[in-house]
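lol forgot to send this yesterday, sorry. struct tokens for the thing we talked abt
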């Protein structure tokens, strides 16, 4: 049986392992973090396309107890006036409805489900180098251990060691916004729990949603220079709170009060992306998820695209006659779609493109309900041979 090493047990790596396992491959996941890293990261949304991919892995139930659903989105301007109020994705289908989740909780739920299925996880093993041989691929880890497989899938995120092993010149690029995430139970937010509010303010975009148990999840994307690396790790929540409140007070929206009521746990990041055109594969090695195509968070598609990668890669390896043609088929299916997302998301972050939700005359929706969706649905459908699906996939706007 083909043995596949998956490097990285984040959302892309864990989902890829589940998909490969479902397709009948023998898989082991090697994750640098010593445990499921439940406490790491902020929150994210899974869009309907990500939920569709999850359903193909029979993993919808595994995440049903994590996070909460979102059915619609309203958009406010900097004066608090409503510009749009639209359904989000496939809101009428409970299985495909958008979901807002803490990233660590989603990751822990997926890892738990993968282990329950018998997939091997080796935590605390950090890849340091890859040896791509003609017959096998060998992974070397920081603790001195070694693993050998027929194929190696790099799902090791933005600063991927696997990517650097065959594309050493490629580095993440700043996408024009710093991004902050926080939570508060002290904000007075007058809205339903299944609503995402987006504020197009004068200094960037602010978003918030209210969980059923009364916690407000919020993020702020602020346009301007990147935060310095020594500042990114600033431990005092008051540091970021005060800076953000000062910026957000320039507008007449609920944003400043929500941030002001947040007592701790504010996380600061820089929006970054992997440049389109980056190589994805070499010999017996291929990268997926953020390692291959990290995008700025403006379209909120990072985790959903990673879940799509997982299903389509496993189908390619299942359906194509050999690994070389499978990797080529995978890339043909995936590259146009994910790179379109990277480009659109980067343009929104840099302010050179209007988000679909406020573009004049557009039906505001980040959902995948547009021409080309049938192709994506067929690519994701576990029962459809990937080779029979045309690859004229469109995406994102
Ligand atoms: C704070 C934050 C908020 C986000 N918000 C959103 C959002 O709202 N919507 C959205 O769709 N996406 C969001 N994203 C992005 C989203 O989480 C990712 O795009 C998605 O999860 C896919 O990630 P990944 O699994 O490819 O990479 P990662 O999540 O980075 O996982 C990579 C894994 O590889 C491991 N690893 C790294 N190096 C090595 C190594 N050398 N050896 C072994 N293991 C290694 C890491 O420990 C990690 O577990 C957010 C990301 C962050 C950090």
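and heres what i got for the seq, position by position
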């Amino acid at each position: 049986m083909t043995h596949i090493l998956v490097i990285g047990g984040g959302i892309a790596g864990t989902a890829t392992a589940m998909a490969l396992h479902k397709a009948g491959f023998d898989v082991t996941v090697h994750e640098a973090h010593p445990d499921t890293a439940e406490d790491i990261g902020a929150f994210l949304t899974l869009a309907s396309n990500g939920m569709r991919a999850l359903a193909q892995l029979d993993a919808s139930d595994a995440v049903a107890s994590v996070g909460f659903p979102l059915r619609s989105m309203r958009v406010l301007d900097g004066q608090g006036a409503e510009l749009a109020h639209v359904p989000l994705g496939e809101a009428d289908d409970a299985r495909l409805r958008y979901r807002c989740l803490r990233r660590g909780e989603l990751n822990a739920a997926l890892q738990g489900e993968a282990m329950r299925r018998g997939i091997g996880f080796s935590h605390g093993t950090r890849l340091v180098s890859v040896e791509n041989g003609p017959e096998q691929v060998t992974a070397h880890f920081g603790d001195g251990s070694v693993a050998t497989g027929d194929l190696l899938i790099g799902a090791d995120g933005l600063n991927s060691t696997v990517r650097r092993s065959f594309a050493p010149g490629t580095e993440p690029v700043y996408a024009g916004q710093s991004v902050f995430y926080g939570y508060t139970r002290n904000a007075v937010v007058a809205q339903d729990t299944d609503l995402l509010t987006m504020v197009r303010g004068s200094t960037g975009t602010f978003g918030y949603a209210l969980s059923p148990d009364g916690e407000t999840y919020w993020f702020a994307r602020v346009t301007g220079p990147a935060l310095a690396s020594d500042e990114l790790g600033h431990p005092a929540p008051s540091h970021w709170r005060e800076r953000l409140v000062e910026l957000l007070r320039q507008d007449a929206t609920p944003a400043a009060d929500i941030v002001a009521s947040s007592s701790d746990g504010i996380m600061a990041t820089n929006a970054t992306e992997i440049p389109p055109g980056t190589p994805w594969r070499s010999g017996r090695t291929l990268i997926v998820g953020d390692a291959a195509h990290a995008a700025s968070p403006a379209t909120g598609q990072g985790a959903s695209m990673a879940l799509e990668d997982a299903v389509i890669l496993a189908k390619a390896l299942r359906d194509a006659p050999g690994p070389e043609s499978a990797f080529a088929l995978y890339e043909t299916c995936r590259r146009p779609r994910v790179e379109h997302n990277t480009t659109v998301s980067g343009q929104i972050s840099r302010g050179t493109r209007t988000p679909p939700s406020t573009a004049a005359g557009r039906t505001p929706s980040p959902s995948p309900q547009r021409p080309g969706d049938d192709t994506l649905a067929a690519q994701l459908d576990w029962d459809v041979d990937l080779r029979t699906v045309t690859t004229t996939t469109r995406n994102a706007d």
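DSSP finds twelve helices and 19 strands in the chain. anyway ping me if u want another try
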